[in-house]
Amino acid sequence: MRISTTCICSFIIFTAGMLQGIDAAQGKYAQMLFNELFEGYSNALRPVEDTDMVLNVTLQITLSQIKDMDERNQILTAYLWIRQTWHDANLKWDKDRYDGLDSIRIPSNLVWRPDIVLYNKADDDFSESVNTNIVLRYDGKITWDAPSITKSSCVVDISYFPFDSQQCNLTFGSWTYNGNQVDIFNTLDSGDLSDFIEDVEWEIHGMPAVKNVITYGCCSEPYPDVTFTLILKRKSTFYIFNLLLPCLLISFLAPLGFYLPADSGEKVSLGVTVLLALTVFQLMVAESMPPSENVPLIGKYYIATMTMITASTALTIIIMNIHYCGSGAKPVPQWARVVILDYMSKIFFVYDVGENCTSLQCVGEQDSESETTRTSSKEQGRGEGRRKPLSKGRSSDSDPLEKLREGGKDGSGFPGKNARDVVGCCSCYRTLIKNIEYIANCVRRHKANHAKGVEWKKVAKVMDRFFMWIFFIMVFFMSVLVIDKAR
Ligand SMILES: *[C@@H]1O[C@H](CO)[C@@H](O)[C@H](O)[C@H]1NC(C)=O
Ligand SMILES: *[C@@H]1O[C@H](CO)[C@@H](O)[C@H](O)[C@H]1NC(C)=O
After folding, report:
1. How many alpha carbons lie under 13 Å from residue 16 in its C-beta half-sphere?
2. Ligand 1 within 6 A of 275 CB?
3. If exposure means fewest CB atoms within 10 Å of the residue's CB, which of 10, 162, 236, 459 is most exposed?
4. 110 C-alpha to center of ligand 1: Å?
5. 57, 84 in Cβ contact below 8 A?
6. With contact defined as beta carbons under 8 Å apart, do 376 and 391 qualify?
7. Which ligand 2 atom sits closest to the C-alpha of 171?
8. 66-116: per-residue pLDDT in tens?
9. In three state form, how does the secondary structure of 154-209 look?
10. Measured between alpha carbons, how far is 282 from 305 in angstroms, rounded to an integer?
């Protein structure tokens, strides 16, 4: 056991020593190579054998992370790895002369570099990219990997926010050389997304690369560039939960304002509260959007909802006026009686004021009002003639009065004890009858007025119910429309 351990140990030491020796040898050769290569080398000039020759640069982008997408300022901040490859005609060597040394890594500022920049850069500091090392191969091939945080301008179209997708162009090209001096190619058809760190807000749907050659009017030289188009799709769950659903729920409250009893005095304030809540949401959206002509989808939804709620509040005010028409008003017109009280009340299941509240019936029973009122109100509920309970033909209503009158006329019907009393008090009975008739007329008129008020109240109630359903349907369809866009 001990022997074997010693053996392994000595083997490791031996191997390490040999490797060190090789390293030392390579280091020596690398030093020699470096001295020889860079003797008289200038990194200022384009390294081609013939000045007429074009130098080909290939470009490959790896997208590592999307750091920020600023819709308001239309700036995309991304973390990229930029790999550029080209051949330097002045940096070649015969690897056999240098003990098989086929590549060296040296700081990139020692060699000539193509001045490839991001054309649509939106950064305020034009700082140079990081001075990372390059890999120089014996045949002059140089590979330069540079990490870079780019801020690029990106035309953001927020028409479908929060269900939008965006396309951001990253255009790379040489700043000073034209296409006859430095030509640029893309290695692959698309940017590399294999190292992409998943973004919380955006899904990546590809990053195709195309080479464009632009020839400006003034000069005959072509100017090539490589454009990477980053296709982004917004993950809208966050916005659905924070902007859309609250608005949806609030907007469903608005039609319920029509259901609120008029006497609660809360009808208008409910509408106004809902309107204010929506305004807050709209401001939140407007703050994060660029002030462009395109109104985002959610903004349109807010505006439509707000318009609807304004309309509903205005209608509520009008209906409140109808509700409080009261006894001084004109009677309900015939057409309204037919259309609203007969047909619409049946369609919308409106029976009578307070009819569907059981508690109100209990109150009615305890009420000191006579049986007559309740009977009449029930008959009104059945939609039979409104005037009927008030007509003189009703027996229960006019019976005592009739009896009294008859009694006054001939005295026979009156339950008096003897005839002398009846004759003596005949004139005083007459006055009494007159007064009672007057009181009865007053009561009758009062009842008629009250019935008129009740009728107007019912008109208001039917209209309330009608608009409630109309607005419910509108809210529902608007919600369906906006959710439909989400797919
Ligand atoms: C550069 O690329 C063009 C087109 O692919 C090719 O014709 C040309 O030979 C290349 N030049 C060099 C120096 O490799
Ligand atoms: C982005 O680049 C592509 C390809 O060059 C081009 O068709 C498109 O118009 C560009 N988009 C913008 C907004 O510049």
Report:
1. 6
2. no
3. 10
4. 25
5. yes
6. no
7. 2
8. 999 998 889 999 999 999 999 999 999 998 988 888 999 999 999 999 999
9. CCCCCCCCCCCEEEEEEEEEECCCCCCCEEEEECCCECECCCCCCCCCEEECCCEE
10. 11
